[in-house]
Write a structure and sequence with these properties.
The structure is a single chain. By secondary structure, the protein is α/β, with parallel strands linked by helices. It has two domains: about 280 residues, TIM Barrel; about 110 residues, no CATH class. It is about 50% helix and about 10% strand. It contains 17 helices and ten strands. Helix 8 links the parallel strand 7 and strand 8. The ligand O=C(O)[C@@H](O)[C@@H](O)[C@H](O)C(=O)CO binds next to helix 2, strand 3 and strand 10.
């Protein structure tokens, strides 16, 4: 264990930003951007989901070592965090705890009944299985201080039980595994629950019940990621009405403040520039933002700048893989969203179609081109391909300064937008 590694600690309720790095070489650029916030936002530099590691063929220890060594090399001596992301099983927990991750994100989405919002009252009744907590809410109306009034009528509570009953139970069980795994190793631990990867937004009543139950179970809950209104797709800016979102965020934040406090967490946070000020404002700085795929996309910009042929080959390969690899990711791009590379003569135009140019994006907005999603979902296939993978890493390693410069600029824009909502 390196000195800096020992500083991957609990960050508690401090505003935090997750810099998922699927390649192991992004930390210098992430750090350069973070330094511009003047220490107001803490960095989570070692962050990886089980799904990402499966796709890239990496191990938790490699993720932790890449981040901590880069931080040591940069002489970074401030607190930083690590995120064992999207954990679904006790085995996932053990792997990440062994690599000394401290922030554990439980993802119970497999236990969520994704169709529950569409059930009729009769269907809810038919599927309802008594949960030990139902009587705590049934028939009550709760006024959240500074926030919404939540009416827990019978249908609302029973629908929540159908939708999230098993997910709550699973989360409580996994939290106990996390606690034991951390204690066995004399390590810190803190917990996030993410229910963002569901089809329908998390209602305020559902948020209340989920968080209240997890807190009653005495887990060290520091962060919760509801499924917010609108669309949080991978690789592009927020899609939806920002005023509606801000009102909803304020209501969710009031619940988090009242029951916790805990942070509201934004998954698929990459490129959501237009909503960051509202997110920071509504949460009054009690937030966590999680990004990952965008650092891979910016690595492809390095490839485009230094090896046009390789970039073109990656575009073609990614188009072949997209329909398979997009499984489990929330995206809307189709192969028609961007042209095949051999139909685009200029590299600048090809980059515009698949990555976009910051110089062409209006201030306060993020990228919107669906072509980015074709490259976003196919990262694992590219980096593990026997031909493209080595060429990709060789080009990236040959141009570390370009990557750092691009990430500094890219995340500088993210963090400035968040910061705007803090002041
Ligand atoms: O791809 C993954 O598995 C993760 O990077 C993400 O889902 C992560 O949780 C995230 O939201 C990053 O934007």
């Amino acid at each position: 264990m390196t000195d800096s590694n020992s500083k991957a600690i609990n960050l508690g309720l401090a505003p935090s930003f997750g810099f998922g790095d699927r390649l192991g070489s992004a930390t210098p650029g992430h750090l350069a951007a973070l330094k511009r916030t003047g220490g107001h936002i803490r960095g989570i530099f070692a962050q990886q989901s089980i799904r990402e590691m499966a796709r890239t063929d990496r191990q938790p220890d490699q993720v932790m070592t890449a981040a901590s060594e880069a931080l040591v090399a940069a002489g970074f001596d401030e607190p930083w965090g690590s995120d064992a992301d999207h954990l679904k099983t006790p085995e996932d927990v053990e792997r990440m705890a062994e690599a000394k991750f401290t922030f554990f994100t439980i993802d119970p989405s497999d236990q969520v009944d994704q169709k529950a919002d569409n059930y009729s009252a009769e269907e809810v009744e038919a599927k309802y299985e008594a949960q030990p907590w139902v009587d705590q809410y049934l028939g009550k109306t709760i006024q959240v201080p500074g926030g919404p009034e939540i009416v827990f009528d019978e249908l609302t509570v029973k629908r929540a039980a159908v939708k999230y009953g098993k997910a709550i139970q699973h989360s409580v069980e996994l939290a106990a595994v996390i606690k034991a795994a951390a204690e066995k190793r004399s390590q810190d631990h803190e917990i996030e629950i993410s229910v963002d990867e569901t089809d329908q937004p998390t209602t305020l009543a559902e948020h209340y019940i989920i968080a209240d139950q997890l807190i009653q179970a005495k887990m060290n809950l520091v962060s919760l990621a509801p499924r917010f209104v609108g669309e949080m797709e991978k690789g592009v800016d927020y899609i939806g009405d920002l005023d509606v979102l801000e009102k909803s965020l304020a209501d969710h934040a009031a619940i988090a403040e009242h029951l916790g406090p805990y942070k509201l967490s934004l998954h698929s946070g990459s490129d959501k520039i237009s909503m960051y000020p509202a997110f920071a404002r509504a949460t009054k700085g009690r937030f966590h933002v999680k990004t990952a795929g965008t650092s891979y996309l910016e690595a492809l910009r390095v490839i485009a700048r230094h090896d046009e042929r390789l970039f073109r080959d990656i575009v073609t390969f990614s188009r072949d893989r997209y329909d398979t690899d997009k499984a489990t990711y929330h995206v809307h791009a189709t192969l028609d969203s961007a042209p095949p590379e051999d139909q685009v003569e200029s590299l600048e135009e090809l980059e515009r179609e698949y990555l976009e140019h910051w110089s062409e994006v209006p201030a306060g907005k993020g990228f919107t081109k669906a072509g980015r999603q074709i490259l976003h979902c196919t990262f694992g296939s590219v980096v593990t391909d026997p031909k493209l993978g080595p060429a990709f890493f060789a080009c990236l390693e040959a141009h570390p300064d370009t990557y750092t410069e691009i990430l500094d600029d890219h995340f500088g824009r993210h963090l400035e937008a968040l910061h705007a909502g803090l002041s």
